[in-house]
Design a protein that fits this description.
This protein is α+β, with helices and mostly antiparallel strands and 166 residues long. Helices cover 33% and strands 23% of the residues. It has five helices and six strands, in the order ββαααβαββαβ. The strands form two sheets. Strands 4-5-3-6 form a four-stranded antiparallel sheet. A hairpin with a 2-residue loop joins β1 and β2. α2 crosses α3. This is Lrp/AsnC family transcriptional regulator. It holds the Pfam family AsnC_trans_reg.
Length: 166
Amino acid sequence: MSEEFYVKKNSTEIPHMHSLDEIDRKILIALHQNSRISYTDLGQQIGLSRVAVQARINALAEKEIIERFTVVINPVKVGLSVSAFFNVDIEPMYLDEVAERLDQEPAVTSLYHMTGPSTLHMHGIFADMEEMEQFLLEKLYKMPGIVKVESQLLLKRYKSRMGMRL
């Protein structure tokens, strides 16, 4: 691996991501489970003061290790019953333009540039099939450089994780 991903410490190479200490890891795990936990409760859980917890969380946010705090909404409970995954083939010169336009679409929940047969992998949530069809016909298919779109409808969600596992 390139040197930018490693630092020397006692002549042993350690990946940068391991610069998180055990307390930071405990904080991140607790916040991942419940980002509404109070600094006081979190401090009691991991053995730190409220002020120390707050300082560490602020530092993790400044380093952009914590990107944002958010809420996870059950789409079905708010009337969004169609969940679909899309593989979108795009002419290379239009990739960034299409990605930027799709990023602005409220129905698009995630968007990734992938290796393999498709250029973009996208997830969208819609109120119903008509809304999804309208999105495809009036927005996605009309974007420049779209070569092919394949879709798969979600039948049942067994597991969904926001963020990453430590």
